[in-house]
Structure formats: C-alpha cells, structure tokens
Amino acid sequence: MTDVLLLNATYEPLCVVTVRRALVLVLADKVDVVQPDGDRVVRSAHLVLRVPSVIRLRAFVRVPYRTRSVVTRRAVLRRDGFRCAYCADRRASTVDHVVPRSRGGPNTWENVVGCCEPCNSRKGDRLLRELGWHLRFTPSAPLVTRRIVLAVASIDPDWEPFLVLDQSLASTG
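and the corresponding structure tokens:
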C-alpha cells in the first residue's frame, strides 16, 4: 500500500496522503500514528521509522466541505463497481451521460454512469427510452467519506474502522 489515511483530531477521515507526506508529518510532530502498516519500516542514516497506514492530526482542522463532490471518471467507475450500468455483463471502461450532454443533460452524479464500450457506442447520443433500455440501478452522489475512498485505487483494510462504507464499495477495493 502506498497511501496513508489522514484523520482529523476527531478521527474524522480527511484525505489520503502518500507515505512520504505521512512520514514528513510524523517527523514534524504534527500527527500521531494510529495504525502502522504491518512491519514495514523506512531507514535513514540515523533513524528507523515504521510506515504508517492511518495517521491522526494532533490539532483540529476546520475543513470547508463541499455539498457535492466533483464528478470524475475514476470515481464514477468505482461507485458503479466497474460494471456496465446498461448490460451489467461487461466491465465498465468508459462513462456515459444517461441524458446526453448534446440534449441538455448535466454533468452530475445522477446523470453519469459507468459503461462498457459496446453499450456506449450503441447508445450514442440517444435517450434510454428511444432504445428501450433501462438502468440496473439509480445513480446517486457519494457520501462525504465515500468521496475520499473513491479517489484512491484501493482501500487498505486498516482503514475500514475509520470509514463508513457500504458493502458494494468495500467489495470493489
């Protein structure tokens, strides 16, 4: 694992940082190590440090939360479990606007789904009712803690006690 979960002083998940950034925060005495990453260590000429998996800020930081997170390709594919929202048989590798942008569809969580290339090509800029298709789920915006997780490639099992996840998201990591 190359990422470290950063918690606020209240144990609220803030973001994911690199191991290098986490070690700099540890050396600067700005964080406490909550959970080490197994027996992994980093050595220098004068110091041996255990690599952290979860760290917590010593001082509380007020974070202005957005009411909605930005829609990204990786986050949409992760939210949808890398399965096509139309056929559910194939792995999703692209994203598709349910109501096409060319027809006034917004770029929102509720209008963007993961899609396989064959379904994306067949759908084009048509509406679902024109094709007789339907979605296999109702797309929605992720919760605040899920936004953090959607941004990383995989979820470290050490992070699970600090994250509120649903089963569909936990199984994709």
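(Above: one complete record from the training split.) Residues 166-173 have pLDDT under 50 and may be disordered.
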